[in-house]
Please model this.
Amino acid sequence: MLRLPRFEVATPKTVGEAIARLAEAGPSAMVIAGGTDLLPNLKHELFTPELVVSLSAIEALRGVRVEDDGTLAIGAMTTLAEVAASELVQKHAPVLAQAASLVAGPQLRTMGTLGGNVLLDTRCQWYNQTYFWREALGFCMKKDGTKCHVVEGGKKCVAAASNDSAPALMTLGSLLEFEGPSGRRTQAIDDFWLADGIYNKKVAHAELLTEIRIPPTGPGHRGAYGKLRERGSIDFPLLGVAARVDVVAERITRADVVVTALAAQPKRIARVADVLVGVAARGEELDRAIEAVAASAAKQCNPLANIPGDHEWRKAMVPVFVRRTLRAAVDGNGPVHGD
Amino acid sequence: MGALHLKVNGDELDVAAPSHWTLLEVLRYRLGLTGSKQGCDKGDCGACTVLLDGKPVLSCLTLAAMIEHRAVTTIEGLMPAHIANGGTGADPIQDCFDRCGALQCGFCQSGMMLSARALLDRVEQPTPEQVREALSGNLCRCTGYTQIFQAIELALADRAGTKPAPRAWEAPRDTEAAPRQA
Model:
């Protein structure tokens, strides 16, 4: 049995009220959206807030809509199940619908929200454990200690970004809308991350993620998500690959691959567009280009022993999943999942 | 500690419970509804699955304070709801789990049945893939899942007024069984 530490719960009805409660309570307050990441972490005593501010009663934060210019706007409290099932998301941002459909299992997708997934805490097999377990081993630098159990003598936390939505949103060039005590700000998701597993996000206390905005994608847009995990459900990614390919007149005009579950932040594979743009969307030329990107991704990615699953296996799966996911994207298929 | 206004199995309840308690803790330790099981307690196993407004959620990761006034259905509520809707006996899902012996230790069973109930409420005749997907958040460590899928197949056949396909080891149902060799 895992008990929660003692805290009070506030259920404000508006964004303004929530920000006011958070600002007033200071660092001892935390935000809860779906609770599927926060509550296990609280049960593991990774955080001990005095106040938990629930966003569940704020209706304004829910829903998916397309604006006049074609921008897809998704409220941060829209559940992952709703994102996965949304015809608008499937049409305008297939990579995101696929990524959302593979997060955890059905119950957790019904509870978990897109905003919560974007703001997911980084994960590590030495961190996501009970207090008893962590104390027995010797605490790590992410919580209560100073050492790193992953990299001997390591000075920087390497807990892994494990949110399936993040690489998908990065291939879409998404914008994050925040509202806080000092007003609103827009943040490109590409520049949102820090290379620090202890806290990998540029977000201040009392700032709320209110909306995720995806710029218009156009008719030639295609995308796919690939997820490696040991079981077909429930698990966090051991490797996540988001691929974007825009095809106009049978030629690739834009391409992007972002990989996650390696280190503290999702990683954009370099030189994907250089290889793929201009290539015909079928035939041997495409096969060779995809192989080249997969081989290049394998060189660029070095999984650590930070999350469960043999890290050498995860490394060996990088080119396999990059190849399969790119292929699925070009063909308008996906997600890539299972063996 | 404050009064929570909960709606459980059709009953409107005012329950005194600490604000940091999960729905599972309130169900089990305040309301005595111990059909929802406390398994991993961190979202891995699905044994604590309940229906919230008809959708399966994990009660171990739901703060009771966050779901006030929303309709919670636990395993204890399935049969009364079935009878209130004009049915007799247990909910068809429960009946089929019983007829197929779709359990060994029974710990996962209430979560399994609620996930199945939610699917059958949403989809008239789900495909085997949809059934597997709907139950993919519920772990069973005994049965190997075979009888569980058979139970749902039986419930779907009953609903459609047909018989489920015979198993490989069963004699075809529409022909006389071959006489036994002496």
About this structure: Chain B has a mean pLDDT of 93.
